[in-house]
Every structure is written in C-alpha cells, then in structure tokens.
Design goal:
Blueprint (H helix, E strand, L loop, with lengths): L11 H15 L4 H8 L3 H8 L7 H11 L8 H10 L6 H8 L4 E6 L10 H13 L5 H14 L10 E7 H5 L5 H16 L3 E6 L13 E5 L5 E6 L4 E4 L2 H17 L3 H13 L3
Helix pairs in contact: 2-3, 4-5, 7-8, 10-12
C-alpha cells in the first residue's frame, strides 16, 4: 500500500493530519478502526491525515473524545481553532482577546447587526451568503458563527462591561434570511436594550453628512482605563492603541451618539421596521 510521507512543517493542515496519524498508529489502530470510533469513513480519516481535506469542528471534537483530549491544551479542537483563525481577517483574533477583557465597549456598525448582538440564525444566514459567493468555505462559515456566539459571553460577564451600540439605520433595514430570522433578530435587539449595562441607538439616514464615520468602528476601554480603537474594511483591519490617534475617534463617537436617536426613539424605530418583516 502506498503511504504518503507527511511534512508537518508544510502547513497547519498537514501538521494536524500528521498528529492524527501519529496518535492513531501509536495505538496500533487502522484507519477503519479509528473511523468506526469517530463515526467517519476510513476514506475521510485518510484524507485528513494526508492533508487532502481540512478538518472541521465536529471532526476535531470527535477526535478529542476518542483520544481523551477534550478540554486539554493538546485538544484537536484547540488546534482547529488556531487553524481557522488564519481564515479570519488579520488582526481580528487579537481584537477578540482584548474585547473579552474590556470594561467598556462602544460599537458603531453599518449594514449588518454587529456580531455581539446577532442571533445564531442571523449569523448563519450572513455566513451562508459568503459561502454562496465562494468568499469562504462551509467549514470557515461554521467557525465564524461559533466565534460570534462565543464572543457574546461578554454580555453575561460579572462584572458586566458597559456596552454602547450605535447602529446605522441600514443595519435594521437590510433583510437577512426569512421573516422568522429577522423577527428573532429584532427581539434580540430589544432584549439587549433592556439590559442594565447597555445603551442602544440608531443613527438615522436623516443624519446625512453629520454622521462622523463611514465605516464600522469599535472603541474598547480596558481595566487600566487605556483606550484602543478597532476598525476594518473588507481587506484589512487596524487595532490602534496610540492615544493621539484614538482620542479623536472617541470624540467623534460622542458626536455620533449626540446626533443619533435616543434609545427610546431608536427602539420605537426598530419595532416599526420589524413589523415590515412579519
């Protein structure tokens, strides 16, 4: 039988496959036996081991169960997540690390509901369209949805961070999926606004030129009261820590909040727009 020699240094995917093969052979298991244990075919196991097929989150968790690595530092799921970060916009994984520690978050979004406020169905619909456009693979889409949901743990953190979210009106006007997806998403926005540590506002189209940002922006206040800003376009992102650059962005954000609708008026608009999706 032909045996493909693996090059673990060739790519993270090949390293993953080489490790899977090493653990399997260390137990003197055949690919058929491992496939039975993991509920995958031997052909699928072979494709992962040789780097011809990328692993998925489900596959990684199954491997961890079989090799008793679940929750450990050596877990395949951990390795998988590190691999998938390579499919995220450069700089975003670092931002997520800071986001989880922030004591205050100020968000401004255009076109789509921000990830921290998305329902799973809304996020999945958004990522499904990226797959349709061949901008990502189904596996990458699955991981991005899971990341969006994991990030939302910050909403239940103790002590709670203060979260100010300003949505451009386009966020609530743009349909995403069928009416049930939008109905659930609007309900999530209203629930978010009811939390004691949040503020939700809509920046209406009528703001016109008074809108200080044309792209999404996030400001994080860290436990030491330092402030950083994060912004991204389709191709790149920028995490800024220099006060000389961040302070003008913070000032512009305060101007944005002053011009946006108050929360009560924003919720009324969200409810009105939501009726159009029913």
């Amino acid at each position: 039988m032909n045996r493909k020699e693996l090059t673990p240094d060739g790519s993270p995917q090949e390293a993953y496959g080489a490790r899977l093969r090493s653990l399997r052979e260390g137990r003197v298991w055949t690919q058929d036996h491992l496939g039975d244990l993991m509920d995958y075919s031997s052909v699928h196991i072979s494709a992962i081991e040789t780097g011809r097929k990328p692993p998925t989150l489900r596959f990684s968790r199954s491997a961890d169960r079989v090799f008793r690595l679940t929750g450990s530092a050596d877990a395949f799921e951990h390795e998988f997540r590190k691999m998938r970060q390579g499919s995220l916009l450069e700089g975003f994984p670092e931002y997520v690390t800071h986001e989880a520690r922030a004591v205050e978050l100020r968000l401004y979004e255009v076109g789509v509901i921000p990830g921290l406020l998305q329902t799973r169905e809304y996020a999945a619909t958004l990522e499904a369209d990226a797959v349709r456009r061949e901008a990502s693979t189904p596996e990458q889409a699955e991981e991005r949805v899971e990341l969006a949901i994991r990030r939302q743990a910050i909403l239940a953190r103790t002590p709670s961070p203060l979260i100010h979210a300003v949505l451009d009106e386009s966020c609530i006007r743009r349909p995403m999926g069928d009416s049930s997806v939008m109905e659930a998403q609007f309900a999530r926005l209203l629930e978010f606004a009811e939390m004691p540590h949040t503020l939700l506002q809509v920046a209406p189209f009528t703001m016109g030129a008074r809108r200080p940002f044309s792209l999404p922006v996030t400001l994080l206040t860290m436990p030491d009261r330092s402030i950083m800003s994060y912004a991204e376009s389709a191709q790149r992102s920028n995490l800024e820590r220099d006060n000389a650059a961040v302070v003008p962005i913070l000032k512009a954000y305060h101007q944005l909040q002053a011009e946006a609708l108050p929360q009560a008026a924003s919720l009324a608009l969200i409810e009105q727009v939501g009726k159009g999706f029913k």
